[in-house]
Design goal:
The structure holds 3 protein chains of 3 kinds. In chain A, 34% of the residues lie in helices and 11% in strands. By secondary structure, chain A is of the alpha/beta class. Chain A has a domain of 239 residues: Type I PLP-dependent aspartate aminotransferase-like (Major domain) (Aspartate Aminotransferase, domain 2), CATH 3.40.640.10. In chain A, the strands form 3 sheets. Chain A has a 7-stranded mixed β-sheet with strand order 1-7-6-5-4-2-3, with helices on both faces. In chain A, helix 9 links the parallel strand 4 and strand 5. Chain A starts with 40 loop residues before the first helix and ends with a helix. By secondary structure, chain B is α/β, with parallel strands linked by helices. The longest helix of chain B has 37 residues. By secondary structure, chain C is of the alpha/beta class. Chain C is elongated, with a radius of gyration of 22 Å. Classes of the chains: A alpha/beta, B alpha/beta, C alpha/beta. At the A-B interface, helix 1, helix 2, helix 3, helix 4 and helix 5 of A face helix 1, helix 2, helix 3, helix 4 and helix 5 of B.
């Protein structure tokens, strides 16, 4: 036998493709997926039939039209769908810029699925849940150390909800100071996440955007013109989604403080900063971390998640209640739910039922206990090393550029432009995205509007190895070459994914859109 | 002091020093310290963060966390009667199997091509819920039921262009706080009384509070106290007559046996998916859904993603995408922006879809029947205990009912403490947030309670309160 | 020929116009070809437009069986179309070897008369003006521009030739409603002025184009609004800011027009209208009219950058004279623009060039540009 030749340059990938039916199409009358406990005979004798227990008009006239499928067939269906999903566990996750998709350690999954976590009711007496309360309190302490803030809440269940919470806290703080009506503006930058504008808008604020100057930093002169007595808060990401770190950030936060406003730090882009710099030193009064980004908890197809939100001491009374606190007494330590800290009139109340997504906090806790301060610092350094390695290699390609701060380092991600490729060949960034799928990879463009034309936003995190990075770079290079020699294959991609190009032309037409199976059947008779 | 890293860490492939040197060299640097050059020294940390040192091995991590979790008493080794928004129902093994699949667990924002499975499973969840609700449009789920209620009333505000929302006094005060905070700039929330005797909404109080300023009448079924609200059609009719929308929050696990709100005039339905195959997770299993008819004016107000089915360039192939992604309301006046879209509870949506596929129509019917029978049995059995009023409102109820302990001379806190010593988590103490009910508690009985457990509760209470009637 | 015409009855009709000389100036260092064609030819310029037009048609090869291209003889479109195998119907013959602007205008009129559903044209701003002159906007026929001119100011052009073909294809393949349309501004930028560095912001007219938003993949955050919705939101903000007893000058542009639409008032396509307490008090106001209003009421000016270059206030506008603008001042400017439009400016400042340096100095600084309801960007005016 000869040694099998594995020297091919790009992966000959093909995604699992089952041509799977929609679940309703699998229905077969009489099949059961699971048997449900029935009330004991003795109970039924006491209560009588169900019809006597429900008012006449409230009985469901006929069973819901759910499919009838036996258990192995349900299992097989969803297993196939999972195979047709490119989770971080199976691919080199560099292409989902701003999402910080990193390795979610399996041991943390095992811990979070223990019954001592899953079988806890949130209203149990605190004396019965000391374990999870301790974990959540400890996590609060670690986050304080990492950020320099004085108190954290885990109620916000995602980044956007955390921003909403910061805006609500700002609103409450200014109202308590009698300046609620006067301060009706929130300032943000266009390269921060769109939720930095959208969430404060929900809280009633006017939004003022600051554009970058030619170096890619938020324009300080424009910022100066925007800050004033109407400023409630400045909410911003740093580094921004371009990967550019605003080294003047303290000048910005100082100016806002001089005008009596608050500064909120969107730390969705914290992965490159752990142990290097903090919200406090940069002058922020509030910040949040996405535990499902920087702190490794899995993204779950879009949640559940936690946007851990921290504030300085003077803002604590406005946080949502309860906070998880600790009492040190002679006979030991107890953890409890503290409602008393809240400002009686202006505390914002609650942003979520109960205390937030405890298992997500637990996974973040476990991750931090595995790394310690040195590990977190290593995460930041390697995330930035990986990104700058990727950055230099991609910038060496003729058709790739990245506006702003030429020759300087970026933090943990970069927003590139492949405009030159598009002008030469007509192949767009969206086309490249679909062709990358033929090699088993993600690739993300940007939020709209595209301030940077034909964008690509890539964020390696600390998870990929050097070989992984090289594979990603080689694959991109291969496709860029294809754009000049064989653009058709890119324009008609994907070829090796789960389906071919989707025809979205009906998605905006109320007469034709089909957001559920029953609507689809009705409209396609 | 140089800050130290953690070399050769299992989660960080490029923490191998030789690899780092190689990579640094390729980009013209010689040490990791030269990275982060753009961050001014003044705001860089000079010392390592004060965090506990890393646990040396995965084994030690597991032991440590397990020892912490071991301090928790769970609903597995206690008999639990707590509800009030989070419920102990049976979680089929297949639900945990699918939501622990690494692909689903670690996927995020891929395209309808490489994440086709995610799109299809969420489209199917939307479709299965649509059948359960007998309505057309269901969103990719939001944070929890409280958020769903909050967004539903804001949607109503945008659609009608009005500010006032009428909500029942008989609702979870915590959920109300969420709705108030979220609604603040756009909505004024006004509470409507309930009948002291039946626990149902007081229709004459409702009539008195409806006006041309009313955007929505929001009510819940069952009510927070477990009462089945059978006046739904009358409430919706009153709302519509005033030009307002009918917004109903429903417990989805009731819908195998109870008529869905679409049958009694609801315009927007909302609620929490947690009962559908998701563990309680100390409140981490909550997931909010919203649903409307397939009408442009409603669809355009959803802030969440709505996945739709579509053809592809290959005949016979299913594809998916986002429906109506550009959403601005037609005829809105003050409101702008459809709130925000972000990470919410995708995995729980998939889980609820798996649950509904597995339960099927018969399973949903049967679980509803079992819950009705077991909870009614509990009421009958507990009613034999003197000095307490069980199912205080004397109405038909689902799953939850109020026990009035006022005559016992004991507080709910005391009673629950005594129950705890007997291995029982007593019902939710209503005395603080619902003072008009005094020392009352909200008890929840589901399909997981056996007759012997219900009898055990009765015996325990008899002992604590000193005797049967 | 007879049979060709017969077949043409059942086929889709696409107007196809090439301005063969568009873009010839650029390679030889001239800023356009208006009036300098001889110079360009002398310097050895080669035609660029036909090759770009061919790239656009390449994206439509799949439609060859279903459509017929209504076009002009020879270099006006026939040659390129036939070379790529399209069915062709020649609706305009040229008078001589060298084509002129008159040919473009006549050809455009012919393709409309012969029933074109959409016009795909290769050229520059001048060619776009020719289409306006031919009455295409009034005829209600949408266009897609293949960028082939030297400098493209008007937003009627796609970003690159292939995209122009794709847009034309998808516009034709959808039934009317589900393709979104917008009105794009055609600027009257005289190349002579442009070459001498003067900023003119005179709006020449409009053409209807398909809204090129592209389907956004990977929607972790909201997609861009359609332009019509963005304009409506901005207009609602302007109306919310309006105060009783203050007169509002509403400048030219599609963005500003939305304000009058929201108020239910008529508007002047290319002129300035004045609104007081929600009603028009002067339509298509002259400078004199505006000065008279300024004498009676406090006034604010609602204005939007027109064209793709960020020109806010320039010399082309007779109504908004330096005198009028001096009375307005920077604090009374209400500048509006959709986010997508600001993005096109790539962070360049907005430009003012009134002809009066003193007034220019008054207007320079930072202004809030309203991009939506209660949403603004802080932009420099220079």
């Amino acid at each position: 036998m000869k040694r099998i030749d594995r020297s091919h340059k790009v992966r000959r990938f093909h995604q699992a493709k089952w041509d799977e039916s929609i679940i309703f199409e699998l229905s077969k009358a009489g099949e059961r997926g699971i048997l449900v406990p029935k009330a004991e005979k003795a109970i039924q004798e006491v209560t009588g039939s169900v019809d006597e227990l429900v008012p006449a008009g409230m009985r469901r006239p006929s069973a819901p039209a759910l499919p009838e499928i036996s258990q192995p067939r349900v299992l097989r269906h969803y297993m196939r769908l999972s195979q047709q999903t490119l989770g971080a566990d199976v691919n080199i996750e560099i292409g989902q810029g701003t999402c910080t998709v990193k390795y979610s350690p399996k041991v943390n999954e095992v811990l979070a699925r223990m019954p001592e976590m899953t079988e806890l009711h949130p209203l149990q007496d605190p004396s019965t849940v000391q374990g999870i309360l301790e974990i959540m309190h400890e996590t609060d302490l670690y986050m304080r150390e990492i950020s320099g803030m004085d108190r954290f809440t885990f109620q916000p269940s995602g980044g956007s909800q955390a921003i909403m919470t910061m805006a609500a806290v700002a609103r409450a703080y200014h109202a308590a100071n009698g300046e609620g009506d006067q301060r009706d503006e929130v300032i943000t930058t266009i390269y921060s996440h769109p939720s930095d504008a959208a969430a404060p808008a929900v809280m009633g604020y006017k939004i003022i955007h600051i554009h970058p100057d030619e170096d890619g930093y938020p324009d300080y002169e424009a910022f100066k013109a925007a800050v004033g007595p109407r400023t409630a808060a400045f909410i911003v990401a740093n580094p921004e989604d371009t990967g550019v770190y605003n080294s003047q950030v303290k000048a910005f936060t100082d100016l806002v403080h001089a005008h009596g406003g608050l500064c909120g730090y969107d730390q969705a882009n914290a992965n490159g900063l752990l142990g290097v710099t903090r919200a406090k030193e940069a002058g922020f009064d509030m910040c949040f971390f996405n535990l499902h980004k920087t702190f490794s908890t899995p993204h779950g197809c879009g949640g559940p998640a936690v946007g851990a939100t921290g504030v300085v001491e003077r803002l604590v009374p406005f946080l949502p209640a309860p906070l998880i606190d600790r009492k040190d007494e002679s006979d030991g330590v107890t953890y409890f739910l503290n409602y008393d800290f809240a400002h009686p009139e202006h505390g914002i109340g609650k942003v979520r039922l109960f205390s937030g997504v405890a298992p997500v906090v637990l996974k973040a806790y476990a991750w931090m206990r595995t790394l310690g301060a040195e590990g977190l610092y290593e995460v930041a350094k390697v995330a930035v090393l990986n990104n700058n390695y990727l950055f230099q290699k991609l910038m060496a390609l003729e058709c790739v550029d990245a506006p702003y701060i030429p020759g300087k380092q970026r933090i943990e991600q970069v927003r590139y432009t492949i405009e030159k490729l598009t002008q030469d060949t007509g192949v767009t960034s969206g086309d490249i995205q679909r062709r990358m799928m033929d090699f088993g990879m993600h690739y993300w463009t940007s939020h709209h509007p595209y301030y940077i034309p034909e964008p690509a936003t890539l964020e390696p995190t600390e998870t990929p190895s050097k070989e992984d990075l090289d594979e990603y770079i080689n694959t991109l290079k291969h496709i860029f070459d294809e754009a000049y020699t064989n653009p058709e294959i890119i324009k008609t991609a994907p070829h090796n994914s789960v389906c071919h190009q989707v025809d979205e032309s009906d998605m905006d037409d109320p007469q034709r859109w089909a957001p559920s199976w029953r609507v689809y059947l009705r409209k396609t008779q | 002091m140089t800050l130290r890293g953690f070399k050769n860490h299992p989660y960080i492939p490029n923490s191998v020093p030789e690899v780092q040197q190689e990579m640094l060299k390729e980009i013209g640097l010689s040490s990791l310290e030269e990275l982060h050059a753009e961050i001014p020294k003044e705001i860089c940390l000079k010392e390592p963060m004060k965090l506990p040192p890393a646990l040396e091995s995965e084994y030690e991590l597991k032991r440590h966390v397990e020892s912490l979790l071991a301090k928790n008493k769970t609903c597995k080794n206690h008999i639990n009667f707590l509800g009030a928004g989070c419920y102990q129902h049976y979680v089929p093994a297949i639900c945990d199997e699918i939501n622990s699949r690494g692909e689903f667990l670690t996927a995020y924002g891929g395209e309808p091509y490489n994440d086709h499975g995610r799109f299809q499973s969420l489209f199917e969840y939307q479709s299965l819920m649509a059948e359960l609700l007998d309505f057309d449009i269901v969103n990719v789920p939001t944070m929890d039921g409280a958020q769903a209620s909050s967004t539903a009333i804001r949607m109503a505000g945008r659609i009608t262009g009005r500010r006032e929302v009428l909500v029942p006094k008989a609702m979870d005060r915590e959920k109300l706080k969420v709705m108030i905070n979220y609604g603040k700039p756009a909505l004024d929330i006004i509470e409507v009384d309930y009948c002291a005797k039946s626990g149902r909404l007081d229709l004459s109080d409702l009539k008195g509070k409806l006006s041309e300023r009313t955007a929505a009448v929001y009510f819940e079924n069952p009510t927070f106290y477990g009462v089945i609200e059978d006046q739904g059609q009358a409430i919706s009719d009153l709302a519509h007559a005033a030009g307002a929308l009918s917004v109903v929050s429903v417990d989805p696990i009731t819908l195998g046996v109870l008529a869905p709100p679409s049958h009694y005039g609801a315009d927007i339905i909302c609620g929490d998916l947690q009962p559908l195959g998701i563990h309680m997770n100390y409140g981490g299993g909550q997931s909010g859904f919203m649903s409307t008819r397939d009408e442009e004016k409603f669809v355009m107000e959803f802030p969440s993603r709505l996945f739709g089915i579509a053809p592809t360039s290959e005949p016979g192939e299913y594809g998916f995408g986002d429906v109506a992604y550009d959403r601005t309301s037609f005829g809105h006046h003050r409101e702008h922006g459809k709130e925000y879209v972000g990470t919410q509870t995708g995995l729980w949506g998939i889980t609820a879809g798996v649950y509904l596929s597995t339960m099927g129509p018969k399973g949903m019917q049967e679980v509803g029947e079992t819950i009705l029978q077991k909870s009614n049995y509990a009421v009958k059995r507990l009613s034999k205990i003197s000095k307490i009023k069980v199912n205080k409102f004397e109405s038909a109820f689902f799953k939850e009912f109020v026990i009035d302990f006022n005559e016992t001379g004991k507080t709910v806190a005391q009673i629950n403490q005594a129950l705890l010593e007997k291995g029982i988590f007593g019902g939710f103490d209503l005395s603080k947030e619902h003072p008009e009910l005094g020392q009352s508690a909200l008890y929840c009985v589901t399909e997981i309670h056996s007759k012997s457990e219900l009898d055990k509760l009765a015996e325990a209470l008899e002992e604590i309160l000193g005797g049967a009637r | 020929m007879e049979m060709e015409l017969e077949l043409a009855q059942n086929l889709r009709k696409l107007g196809f116009i090439i301005n063969p000389i568009a873009g010839m100036g650029g390679r030889v260092g001239l800023k356009g070809t208006d009036g300098v064609l001889e110079e360009a030819l002398r310097l050895g310029a080669q035609p660029m437009a036909p090759a770009k037009a061919a790239r656009a048609l390449n994206s439509l090869l799949g439609f060859r069986e279903e459509m017929v291209l209504l076009t002009g003889a020879g270099e006006l479109g026939e040659r390129v179309a036939r070379e790529l195998g399209f069915k062709v119907q020649v609706v305009h013959e040229t008078s001589g070897a060298v084509t002129s602007q008159a040919d473009t205008v006549a050809l455009a009129k012919s393709v409309v008369v012969q029933g074109s559903e959409l016009i795909l044209f290769a050229g520059g701003d001048g060619t776009a003006r020719n289409l306006v002159e031919a009455g295409i906007f009034e005829a209600g026929v949408p266009v897609v521009g293949i960028p082939a001119g030297v400098k493209i100011h008007s937003p009627v052009f796609a970003t690159h030739p292939e995209r122009a073909g794709e847009l034309a294809g998808s516009a034709l393949s959808r039934e009317g409603a589900s393709c979104k349309w917008r009105e794009a501004e055609v600027m009257d930028i005289s190349e002579e002025d442009y070459r001498s560095g003067r900023v003119m912001t005179k709006l020449y007219g409009y053409l209807v184009v398909p809204s090129d938003r592209g389907r956004m993949q990977n929607k972790k955050a909201p997609s861009p609004q359609s332009e019509a919705n963005a304009h409506r939101e901005i207009a609602l903000e302007m109306v919310a800011q309006m105060e009783a007893g203050t007169a509002y000058f509403v400048g030219p542009g599609t963005t500003t027009r939305a304000v009058l639409d929201v108020l239910g008032q008529p508007h002047t396509l290319l002129g300035v209208d004045v609104v007081l307490d929600g009603k028009i008090i002067c339509q298509d106001a002259s400078e004199k009219d505006l000065l008279a209003v300024q004498a009676k009421y406090p006034c604010r000016l609602i204005v939007t950058p027109t064209g793709g270059q960020g020109f806010l206030l320039g010399r082309g506008n007779q109504q908004l004279s330096p005198e009028v603008l001096r009375g307005v001042g920077r604090e009374n400017l209400m500048v509006i623009a959709a986010q997508e439009k600001l993005a096109e400016l790539k962070h360049q400042p907005l430009l003012v060039d009134t002809g009066d340096p003193e007034v220019d100095a008054l207007l320079r600084g930072y202004v809030k540009v309203w991009t939506g309801f209660k949403t603004a960007a802080m932009v420099a005016v220079r």
